[in-house]
Every structure is written in structure tokens, then in C-alpha cells.
Amino acid sequence: MPLVEGKTGMQALSVEAGYRYSDYSSGFTTDTYKAGIDWAPVDMVRFRASYQRAVRAPNIGELFSAPSVALDGSQDPCAGAAADLDATPEQCALTGVTAGQYGNIAENPAGQYNGLLGGNPNLTAEKSDTYSAGVVIRPNIGDLSIAVDYFDISIDNTISSTIGGNADAYINNCIATALPEFCNRIHRDPSGSLWRTPSGYIDDVSANIGELATSGVDLQTSYTLNLGEHRIGFNLVGTWLNEISSAPIMGFPSYDCVGYYGGTCTVPSPEWRHSLRTNWRMPWMGVDLAATWRYYGTAKTERLNPSDQLSGPVNENGIANEIPSYSYFDLTASMVLAEKFTLRVGANNLFDKTPPLVPSGGVNDCPAGPCNGNTWAQVYDAMGRQIFATLTIDF
User: Fold this and answer.
1) Spatial contact of 98 and 57, defined as CB atoms under 8 Å apart
2) What whole-number distance in Å separates Cα of residue 237 and Cα of residue 243?
3) Is the pLDDT of residue 164 over 70?
4) Structure pTM?
5) Once rounded to an integer, what is the mean pLDDT over residues 189-199?
6) N or C terminus: which one in the chain shows less Cβ crowding within 10 Å?
7) What is the mean pLDDT of the chain?
């Protein structure tokens, strides 16, 4: 709804609001709503802010999947020789280890441990609150545009499958806190193992128990430089991550995964990442050349995190304790042929840079499930250089 337009100090002022009520056949209702304001005191500057309540209803799998024991965790702090364990006999007893089993439980050489996975028909929707505020600046310098936005998102009543993606959080928190909310989920087989037989597992079925939160700043800038018949454009999109935290139980202390990766934090979350695209449009036959620089900041194993919920022994040989900053370069060219044909060719990861390998080295920081075994393919290019070509015909 526009409120004011074309006034001194108030070139534009508008507000927005929305509401939705939902009634689910599975037995619960939700309310979502939003409010926002957009103010341009002068033509070159625009401020904006918003608040939004959103929900995510549990999906079919989270509600009705049949319970089954499958690979779900990446560690057992109480498995291995007694001399190599950081967890004390008293701490391991909290997880179901007897005095005779301490120091005599076999480790899984692949770093894979069992979890009981399945649905829960009593789940309710997750709820989130999103606050954002930003400014858009368009100074009288060509078509230069700069947008900076702060975001703060929190999710309550989260479904447990989103907390770390596996059962590691439960056994780590049991040892650190001795709370039954964590320890009662651990079920060891007669030998004390959590992987040798299906009777050893950590209960990780869906449940509304945790909290998630993230905050940071998004930056987007664009500029076009006209040089005669040539046009050179620049576009930068980047994110500075201030927080990406989880609490396995609502109200329980959270852990922050900014700059870390592992079985609980899952994919690397570098503090800074960006994509810078440069485009050169030439006057000859619609030739267009574009180069993109994709950058990801450094990330460390979560075992170096100061939180008691994440810290632990690292690889003694130093393998994969840190992933350095990574840069990829992409190149694309297009040309118009006979007015109706557009040929486009290019290469992603032009220099064929290999992804960072995360071997176990005695400690598994890339467990199956959230990771593919030796690299985080969700972030880094696992396939190397990719060359492509397309031909578009306009009728």
C-alpha cells in the first residue's frame, strides 16, 4: 500500500502486510503473517525493513516413515582403547557403557554408527521469525546500484532431523551434560557397540525439540561501464555469515557452526562467500563474453570448535583439519547467428580445480550421509571442469 509519493524527504513510502491461516488434515493448524516498510527519502536512497512469521509443516517422511535402524552417526566417543579415549568411564557410563566394556568397544573403521530413523505422526509445524533491514543506494554514477541487507532468522520447534543431520549431537551432549533428554536415546548392544548389530543404535526418530538460528549480511552490487559500442558489466553477490547455530533442545545452549564443518555442523559454512561476474558485450554479431569468480572462505573441522557439543580429538597427522579458501572461475561466450540462432559455449571450473579431499586419517570429518565420504560436494565442484554448448533457435 503506497502512503506517500513525490514529497520532500518522502519520495516514496509504502507498507505491506499479509496473513494466512492453514488447517491441516493431519490434525494441526498454523498462522503465518508478515509486515514490511519501504521508504525512499530521496531518489538515490531507499530503506527497507520487514518481519515475517513462517511455518514448515512436517513432510510425509517425517510423519509416517517406518522406523528402521540405519547408518546415522559418525562417532562414538566411548569406542576404542582406554588410553585413546577422551571420555571418562563416568561419562561413558551415561551412554550405557559398563565398567567391563570401557576401553574394549571396537571402533567402526569407516566412522559409521547406527541410528533409529523413522517418522512421528504427532509432529507439529516448525515456526520461524525473520527480521531483515537494508538499504539500496543508486548514486548518480551510471547505473551503479549497491544493496546491503541484514537478516536474522530463528526457527523454534524444529524437527530433529534438521539438527546436525545425524545422531552425533545426542551422544556428544549426553557426555557433556548428563541430561536424560540425550542419554535416554542411546541404546547399546550387549557388547556395548553402536554399529556391530541392529540392537545398538541412537534413537533419532523425528521429534519437535530443537532450535536453529542464523544471521548475517547480504551484499549485492552492479555497475555497467559503457565504452563506445562496448558494454562491460560487473555484478557482485556476497554473504557475510555472522551466525549459524543449533540447539538440540529448546532453551539448551547452542553451538555455532560459522567457519566449521563435520558430522554435526554438516556442510562447510564459511564466514564469507561471493560470486563476482564480469560481462563484456561486444558490438559484433551480439558477441557476449562473461567470466565468473566463485569464492568460498576457509572452514575448519568442528572438532576445533570451542563448544563442548562439538569439540573432540582431531586427526593426529593434520589431514583435513582445515579446508583453505577456494576459488573457481567460469567462462561463457555467446554469439547471435543469422538473427534467429544463438550459440552459447562455456566451461565451469575453467582451470579444473580438484575439490578439497577430507580423508578420515583416524577421525571421520566427512561421514556418509551429510558428506559423500571424501569431499563436501554440496559446496565444492566434485566433477572438475565441465564444458557445455547450447544452440537456441527463435521462431
Assistant:
1) no
2) 19
3) no
4) 0.82
5) 95
6) C
7) 90
| Cell (9 digits) for 87 | 571420555
Q: Which three cell numbers stand for residue 1?
A: 500500500
State the chain's maximal CA–CA distance in angstroms: 82
